[in-house]
Design goal:
Structural class: alpha/beta
Distance between the termini: 24 Å
Radius of gyration: 21 Å
Number of strands: 7
Helix content: 40-55%
Number of domains: 2
Shape: globular
Strand content: 5-15%
Amino acid sequence: MQTGRLLADERLCRAVLGLSGKALLQLEDSFGQALWQAHKNQPERQRAVGGGRRGHLSTVRAKLVFILVYLKCYPTFDVLGWLFGMDRSRACRRVHQLLPVLEAALGRECVLPARQIRSASEFLQAFPGAQDVFLDGTERPVQKPGNGKRRRKTYSGKKKQTTRKFLVLANEQRGIGWLSRSKSGRRHDKRLLDKEDLLRHVPPDVTLWADTGFQGIAQQHPNTQMPCKGTKKQPLTAPQKQNNRGIAGIRVVVEHAIAGIKRLACMAQVYRNRLPKVDDRFALLSCGLWNFFLRTK
């Protein structure tokens, strides 16, 4: 792939990689260090790092562009191999080799969200100086399992399809500070949040904004803002509707954050990968790339 043309055309670079040319060059340094460390840590390595014949992805930038194209466009391995001049099986191996390298590079840039928050100090480290945080859940479609039991386990009644679900906690700048583990779409948002044991570590002076899918969290975190939920027998009054519109206008921050994650096709299209926990890594990398995009735009 012509990386020179990508760097020269900002619109094309963002469309193909999800990052600007400036951000790509900045991430390249951390990616190169993470790649070097990954080569050094290979067990029973016989050659020195850099030894052997030159592969199809001969430079650090080529490897970085390769993995970013995969995440942003999410092509099949046949298409990905054709784009980079290699066999589909080699493209598959390269993807699974470079995904953890990209994760390590984003970790060096300090843009990965926290996966667990077990104390108030950890919360403040993930959300320094935050006065408001925004909680929401989102789902991504997966291929329908052939096994009936697995199909029922992943079926989301809300989306009317088989999905995987995760929760995010965003700050006022739309950055993702916390990401839950990816779970089957059948689980309710509130149940998933209770399993994560997050709320008791949110400081009481921080306002938590959530939607009606988290009914009951005000008992766990009193400083919570949530829309009123009407019923058939008790519909919402005009002031309640007006209040809900105001809350929705503030909560739109987390919707924009989720939209930023799903700029990458690996999070928006139907999940096709077979290896375990790759969908969780996709979510983590998408959040990290979104945070990195916000920092460098």
